[in-house]
Amino acid sequence: MTSPSWSPPSSQVGATLETFILEGMFQVPGATGAFSALLNQLGLVAKLITGRVRSAGLADILGYTGETNVQGETVQKLDIIANDTMIASLRRQGHCAALASEELDDPVYFEKAAGSYLVVADPLDGSSNIDVNVSIGTIFGILRCDRSQPITRESFYQRGRDYVAAGYIIYGSSTVLVLTTGKGVHAFTYDPTAGEFFLSQENIRCPERGSIYSVNEGNHARWSDGVKRWVSYVKDTDKATARPYSHRYVGSLVADAHRTLLKGGIFAYPADSKSPKGKLRLLYEANPVAMIFEAAGGKALLGGTENVLDRMPSELHERVPLIVGSVQDVDTYSRLVNE
Ligand code: FDP
User: Looking at residues 27-49, what average pLDDT do you find?
Assistant: First the structure.
């Protein structure tokens, strides 16, 4: 089977997402175009969802009830809209055999699709931030599936290491789509006037060390002694290691991960006494984010030592701890929690 992984031709800045994907496909001998078409379809999903996110506040400004708008249409919650948009777009195209979504207990099987890819997604991540106009996002991963076997829930139980692509879209001060197929991480910024994503950062590298830590400090009382030791460490003063670190926590994984990817440092959502297995979901939150960080030279662990991408899932909506960021900062975390 030919690998869909490809590296971008150099100096493509200014290229659209579609051009970038097409040129990548030409580098893979024997490529059928299915993988590229699926990536492009996710680009379309990003455009459709960004349109809805950008006008979400109008529901209140125009005095909509939250039930029915002035045209008599139902005003759905944004996370349902994002989920429905993803299902409708993937169903139409035929390259995706099934979708596992944060919004749905069971996967959606696209019966008529002949394609041999699966998509995992959190269509609208950071939902607690929607109403307060803070950055939210969409996270996705693409896996292969064996079409000689029936597609089931278990078809999704694959290590993150075996994902063929991962990405997220951040609806922030601009909409940015970050994508990897395993080699290199690239960012595309949406230009609403052109209706296109343009390549804005090629081959993003996560700095080896940063100066920001990101964690929900409200959970302090629920943490293990090891996690408390790490938090004390980053807050201590030490000139030689440039401490204390600054603290930033948005509460949308996509936003916290994006800042950490670009500026370095560490994002941690460890297990605690309230969420002993962790809070974030392995298939469509931790794995895509971990794949992006590893491809950008960063690191992602499940708690103390285990690499996120090595975990074999045993549930569709499995929760895990997630520690992700600059290599040196994640190694320091690992050393301190294991002491
Ligand atoms: P949310 O529940 O708002 O959808 O996916 C879960 C998530 O957000 C992440 O985006 C975010 O990093 C985390 O939960 C925030 O959790 P806390 O509110 O417990 O800090």
Answer: 88
Type of residue at 37:
A
Query: Angle 253-263/287-295 helices, nearest 10 degrees?
Result: 10
Which residue, judged by its Cα, is nearest atom 16 of ligand 1? 251
| 8 A C-beta contact, residue 316 and residue 290 | no
177 in contact with ligand 1, CB cutoff 6 A: no
125 lines ligand 1 (CB under 6 A): yes
- pTM of the shown model: 0.92
- Per-residue model confidence as pLDDT tens digits over 99-141: 999 999 999 999 888 889 999 999 999 988 887 889 999 999 9
Give nearest CA residue, ligand 1 atom 13. 251
Residue 244, helix vs strand vs coil: coil
Strands 96-101, 108-109: pairing kind: antiparallel
Mutate to test the pocket of ligand 1, among 77, 80, 127 (most ligand atoms within 8 A of CB): 127
DSSP code per residue over 240-295: GGTBSPEE---S-HHHHHHHHHHH--EEEE---SSSTT-SEEIIIIIHHHHHHHHH
Q: CB of 272 closer than 6 A to ligand 1?
A: no
Q: Which of 178, 181, 180, 204 is nearest to 189 (CA)?
A: 178
Residue 252 CA: which ligand 1 atom is closest?
10
pLDDT digits 0-9 by tens, 222-279 = 999 999 999 999 999 999 999 999 999 999 999 999 999 999 999 999 999 999 999 9
For ligand 1, the distance from its centroid to the CA atom of residue 192, given in whole angstroms, is 28
Nearest C-alpha neighbor of 7 from the set 198, 188, 202, 183 = 183
126 CB under 6 A from ligand 1?
Answer: yes
